[in-house]
Task: structure prediction
Amino acid sequence: MKQGFRQNMAWLHTWTGLVLGWLLFAVFLTGTLAYFRSEITLWMTPELHAARPGAAPAQLALDRLAELAPEADSWSVTLPSERSPVLGLSWRDPGQPQQRGAGQVMDPATGALLTPRDTAGGNFLYRFHFELHGLPREAARWIVGVATMAMFVAILSGVITHKKIFKDFFTFRPRKGQRSWLDLHNMTAVLALPYHLMITYSGLLLFTATLLPFVVEGRTRQAAPRTDPPPALTAPAPLVPIAPLLAKAQARWDMPAGRISVEGRLSARPEITLSPARNDSLATQAGGGGGGARLRFDGTTGALLEETLPPRVSAITATHNVLGALHRGRFAETDLRWLFFLSGLAGTVMVGTGLLLWTAKRGMKHAKSGVTPLGFRLVERLNVGGIAGLSLATAGYFWANRLLPARLDQRAEAEIAVFFALWAAAALHPFLRGPARAWPEQLGLTALLLLGLPLLNPATGGAGLPQAVAQGSWILASFDLAALICGAAYALAWWYAGPRKRRLPSPAPRLRAPRIAGE
Result:
């Protein structure tokens, strides 16, 4: 601490970023992909790619439920949305507490039942982002929470350290080794600095219950009034058409309904409850959904029985919900989610270039001294496995989704096993081959896997890029386009990391001795 304040902040910035940098890179990458977890899951279920919007999907779903579960006491329908084009069906039999048929998926245009493959989809990437995988849930949240705290410290100390941070944002010197890594690190850090501060601070807030379990806000719930159960019928009462009720909900909320629940089907007074597709109030978002808003109708007459508004919350709860909603991004429309996605990629590059900058700075010093410490060699190899290796494992995860048998038992777990097997092999690879060879080999393989995804997609039953564009399915088209762009970026990184032929100096011209007369 005898150095100046900025020098101390530089030391803090360096070591907080290095110690947990590989974990932070994984958290940033998987969290960034999780902004499109529904779209990723759709791409990973090619059996659903042919689904198209229908004229009256809600009524079609209720008619199908009448065939599938005529004796059920309750039905539930998840309506199509811009992020999922299919209908979800489930029901509950009398006296049973659990829903049945939750895996039933229906084409909203034809009413045909679809059988998508079992897949971990985008949900695995989302859960890994903050709970890792295979670790006890509480321990994993502690680890990620501590890493988030380190990230917040690294961001603040980095801002203090770089007194010319905004000037450096406009500076990039390619092919300059350490300077290039520093410029790229500064550019990605400043480009999305407000996002980095928001996403890190809100992430810390979401871990409050884990890191500070004694800080708990008391909450009270008002018990719902109990009513006597209506008399049971021998046959279900006929339900009113659902379309007028959906129109009333659309007019009331200025957005479509996202879920239909039918309760008490075997009684004289069945009820239909509609929930909105989303909640536009960030203050009442505790994890997405409609935020508690409901419309409850009489199922036989269509009369409105009750309107439930989002609950009023305290200022503390509202602040927590707003920051949590900003962190998850579920409220965001497609354009805003793309902005979050690009900002997350900038954060991922920021963490990765920070790790590479650490080795670049010290590599020149060790090269001059002729002595390479064990710690430096370890960090060099961990960088390969933590950065290129995770990228390779993620690309391989998508390939495993299409190459594993569609009806394999415990298929979702098999996809995850492939992901970790590839990551473990990639982490071991630089210890066997050395970083100089491991970097281009892993980056090149990652580029090939990503560039091959748009070809693998139609070859394994999915809607290919031309077909998706022709049908207007931009969810599927965007996945393939993103794979091509990322594949091109990794191919460029492979080219820079690969061995290049050094230009040798041209030999000096041979000087011919002057000829002596008479020779």
Notes: The beta strands are 74-78, 87-92, 100-106, 113-114, 257-263, 271-276, 294-298, 304-308. DSSP finds 18 helices and eight strands in the chain. The longest strand covers residues 100-106. The longest helix spans residues 334-369.
